Amino acid sequence: MTELLNSKSRNRIPHEKYILIIGILIVLCPLGLILPHYFKAGEAWGEWSVESIKQQTGHEPAGMKKTAAVYRAPIHDYNIGKEEDPLSKRSLNYIISGLIGTGSILFITFGITKLLALKKEE
Amino acid sequence: MGIAAVAVKKVKDKVDKKLVPFLGMSAAFSFLIMMFNLPVPGGTTGHAVGAAVIALLFGPWVSFIAVSVALIVQALVFGDGGITAIGANCINMAFIIPFVSWFTFRIIATKNASLTRMSVAAFIAGYLSLNMAAIAAGIEFGIQPLIAVGTDGNPLYAPYPLSIALPAMALEHLLVFGFIEAIVTLLIFRYFFKHNKDFIEVIK
């Protein structure tokens, strides 16, 4: 019986555990906002905005300004609220962004795998 | 785009019902890992990617697709990285990391290697692959003032030359983020080795 159980569990990855890991990551993700806040760290190296480059170098990057104006992401900077919201509110928004991102990703990858499975059947 | 087509073909060849939820889980995992921005001295932040361990567990092509999906969602939904950077980001983080990770592991740990040896291989695979990606990004940043200059002589995009961009990107990843990716790779690899050893692609 235990042998049967073992062979069964070996053929299947226990999803529940991994869903739990994803859940924990979502709940903890505000750390990625809070730690930089307390250490007064800004954007990742190179991931500057047009304004930020202008401040650093004194020159506005013209090409970037042009392309930046073409598309604006619906949830800019993982914040459904305002930039000047208190850290606690931004942290909550960060979690919501984590959920929305995870949801979008699962939706897209589900679509991809469905498409691939269909093509394989052909 | 060419790489994406190859990736789709490779993954299609072995679309496995058992693996289906894991493309999504991997992509979500990578997306969330990249939300964990860590501050480093110098006032900037950075993050691990998770692409190295996804490559070891499910193969580099699965990792390529999973991390690409994460990067595309980042750019389209959250304005992170930006649409114009999707291509470069995918090459650095979804292509370079998985393949460097995969081959590093394979070189260090041959079939039937001990768990200790495989753990060392996983750690080095994570460390090395993230740094290769950071160096690639540093070069891409650094050549921009050379190839993209406006009529007034000012850079159109990234402003810093190679002599600044390359050390900046390389140093913070060599000293901090490389180790984070290495630890993430090691821990998750060992977890899978303990619980779902038969699924780990790199030791098949």
In short:
The complex is a heterodimer of chains A (122) and B (204). Chain A has 122 residues and is mainly alpha-helical. Chain A contains 6 helices and no strands.
Plain-language structure description:
The complex is a heterodimer of chains A (122) and B (204). Chain A is mostly helical and 122 residues long. Chain A has six helices and no strands. Chain A has helices spanning 2-10, 15-28, 31-38, 50-57, 62-70, 87-121. The longest helix of chain A has 35 residues, at 87-121. The two termini of chain A are 40 Å apart. In chain A, 23% of the residues are buried. Chain B is globular and about 60 Å long. The longest helix of chain B has 34 residues, at 162-195. Chain B has helices spanning 2-12, 20-33, 51-58, 60-78, 86-108, 115-147, 162-195, and strands spanning 38-40, 44-46. In chain B, helix 3 packs across helix 5 (86-108) and helix 4 runs antiparallel to helix 5. Chain B has a two-stranded antiparallel sheet. With 204 residues, chain B is mostly helical. Chains A and B meet through helix 2, helix 3, helix 4, helix 5 and helix 6 of A and helix 1, helix 2, strand 1, strand 2 and helix 4 of B.
